[in-house]
Amino acid sequence: MSAQLGTVTTALVTDQNDKFYSVQKEGITYQLDKSEGDYQLGDAVQGFIYENMKHTKMMTTQLPDVRQGRYGWSTVTAVRKDLGVFVDIGLADKEIVVSLDDLPSEKHLWPKKGDRLFIRLEVDKKERIWGKLAEDQVFQQITNKLSPQSKSWTNQEVKGTVYHAKLVGTYVITDDYFLAFIHESERLEEPHLGQEVQGRVIGIGQNGNLNMSLKPLAHTVISEDAQMILALLQRQPNHFLPYHDKSNPDDIREYFGISKAQFKRALGNLLKNGQVEQVEGGIRLK
């Protein structure tokens, strides 16, 4: 087995043809595309070693971030339910497979085309290169920590990528390399592995990681009826309407087109969020 596969090594130019240089390392010959440089016989060339889709052993001087023993980001290019997902690590003629054995057992949590995975490379006994997902401890090592007492992050918007999807919640690495946890109660639907998510910070855990929510702020979660009442208040010159929870049901239906029960629910929503106030004879925009 070639110990060089998936690694960066130095090889010597031993031959050439119209398209490729032949470079050799420890008795194994690799092809190097001539478009990557001008070399002479006997020159030492540093490059990344891999086997392309046609099973030709190749070297490239365009070094990918992802290697054996080195983690980096890859982009999902295709999904095969019987195999896993294919990812692009920057090689022109080779995509890497992340095995279904390393993906969530629930296929709806698998990455989709365009998602990102943080992986390293591993070569098996048959000289096949696989992508291996980074373990939790790797993310702990490469990310920043915050003081649990820090308040400046509260309600800040953050973006990140899901690196672990669990029943209790979702684990995310943010674009600026902090770890974040989304409890199952703080998401409207369960994000899948590799998905980019955007949410807001709701606190800092004792471990120095962010607690994150994918739900909007409470004052933005209002019913259509509440939105209608807000819009009507905003249109009034004095932002006042002569209706309240004791108003006649027929008057409410005639003006708003909804029942008194619907009106009271919507009004309660707005009062709770501090968007309106009850004053003598009606309600006013705060």
UniProtKB/TrEMBL annotation:
Superkingdom, taxonomy of origin: Bacteria
Ranges where the Conserved virulence factor B second S1 domain occurs: 71-132
Domain Conserved virulence factor B first S1: 5-62
Pfam families documented for this protein: CvfB_1st, CvfB_2nd, S1_2, WHD_CvfB
Residue ranges constituting the Conserved virulence factor B third S1 domain according to the UniProt record: 147-216
Chain ranges of the Conserved virulence factor B-like winged helix domain: 227-285
Residues spanning the membrane: none
Protein family per UniProt: Belongs to the CvfB family.
PANTHER family: CONSERVED VIRULENCE FACTOR B (PTHR37296:SF1)
Official protein name in the record: DNA-binding protein
Annotated organism of origin: Aerococcus viridans (strain ATCC 11563 / DSM 20340 / CCUG 4311 / JCM 20461 / NBRC 12219 / NCTC 8251 / M1)
